[in-house]
Amino acid sequence: MSEGTEKPSVLVVWPNRPKAMAELEDTYRLIHLWQASEPETLLDEEGPEIRAIVTTGERGASAQLMDRLPRLEIVACFGVGYDGIDVEACKARGVRVTNTPDVLSRDVADMGLGLILMTLRRMAEADRYVRAGRWIEGAHPLGTCAAGKKLGILGMGRIGLELAKRAEVLGMEVAYHNRTERADVALPYKSSPVELARWADVLAVACPGGAATRNLVDAEVLAALGPEGWLINIARGSVVDEPALVAALQAGQIKGAGLDVFADEPRVPEALLTMDNVVLQPHNASATEETRDAMAGLVVANLQAHFKGEKLPTPVA
Ligand code: 8YV
User: Is 265 known to be catalytic?
Assistant: First the structure.
């Protein structure tokens, strides 16, 4: 086939929703790296033809991978977080990057709200109590009331704003820390993660991952949160110093944690598995049928716009 009529080759680092993948299949030649038994051979053979990558924030796209793809034009990320994608390498090569903002903010904030309630109200622990037939022995120990507690949100982006709305419905007091104070947000601003943690009963992490936020929640922040404080993480495992978190939980330096994300997913530190005051989720914050379909729709829309020469719906700035 001549140039112009041939289907552009798209490297699928990781697939997303079946319907979206089927739509892509109609328009593109999909090369499935995730299924390849010999990825190196696949890249040797197909690399020179690849014009686009479909990936996720976690699986990403490295500079080494891009080195194998001389005709690469665009990386479409299934996810709002794109910390796994070497954006600098993309910039240097003139490769465009898109993500899936907004469509998942409410679900991710819902997960934050759910984790707040599950930890403070000891819901996962109480569920295990009922299943173990222990209710018959007596009432489950009491939890903590969310109303009137202080929620500190670390990262006041789209997800942080949605979480703030939900927390206000619970009757929580909300303050935040962000890289820069937001003139359009009428909530009290704390000048550092430590100051926010010192103020808060519950510290919820909702900032982007990547080098700029690595270990932002460290031993000092956890100490400031204190023995009556909870940590909620709906952002990235990399934002929290995980060994410091485990140590703080073991020593009772914080009261509990609700975690959707981890430093080395899908591996979760062994020590957390037996802690009743910790609620664990398998990176599920955006994991609803509706939201994942909307995210996948944006991946398709961005690729279609790119190859038609139209404005990208959701480019990464
Ligand atoms: C994942 C997420 O991308 O949007 C993000 O940044 O972390 C999630 O939505 C999703 O699990 C797909 O890998």
Answer: yes
